[in-house]
Task: structure prediction
Amino acid sequence: MADPHSPPIKSPLEQSPTEESSSEVNSPKESSPVDNIVWHDHPVAREDRERLHRHQGVVIWFTGLSGSGKSTLAGALEQALHQTGVSTYLLDGDNVRHGLCRDLGFNDTDRRENIRRVGEVARLMVDAGLVVLTAFISPHRAERRMVRDMLPAGRFIEVFVDTPLAVCEARDPKGLYKKARAGTLPNFTGIDSVYEAPEQPEIHLDGQQLVTHLTDHLLDLLRGRVIIKP
Result:
């Protein structure tokens, strides 16, 4: 039988912080993984790699609606650069979702993470001295700005492939607009998800013009910025 004069036993929820065990009070806090990570500078720097490539490393970020022609234009520009000896790599929106971003969907949170991952990969490729071409809808200005801020000044070139929605929908090369209109493809940019057009892109292109003409415009831009040799 319990002693009627002894104090009542409190449940864990009723105990005050001062009544917690000393092992809990004095236990050290777990450190964050980043607390134990230090950036390591290597003997070979970006400038050394650029001298080897004989051109600067840069990200050329193509943005626009699905069907605007950004992937086609990015491919044409990469081919033109490759033919002149420029070291390139093209990151395509569909391709990265087969591997690097295969676990992500198309809601706003996943889209942001998709662009963050691509931005980090592109940043590493720029450090390797490559001309990196990316073709992503990347509908939000904040995410495109996030990638720009990852890179040194002047190493992010935003290319707005401006094609009217009606033209993109008429092209519909993958049949995605038809699915979106039918309600079987939710969160589709331009239909039920917003696209925020760039306010000050490095170059604003009319996506209804010939690809060869637009490619020449881009090559002129890269030469003018001394990214590649004249």
Notes: The two ends are 97 Å apart (CA to CA). Residues 9-25 have pLDDT under 50 and may be disordered. Strands lie at 58-63, 88-92, 131-135, 156-162, 203-206. The longest helix spans residues 108-127.
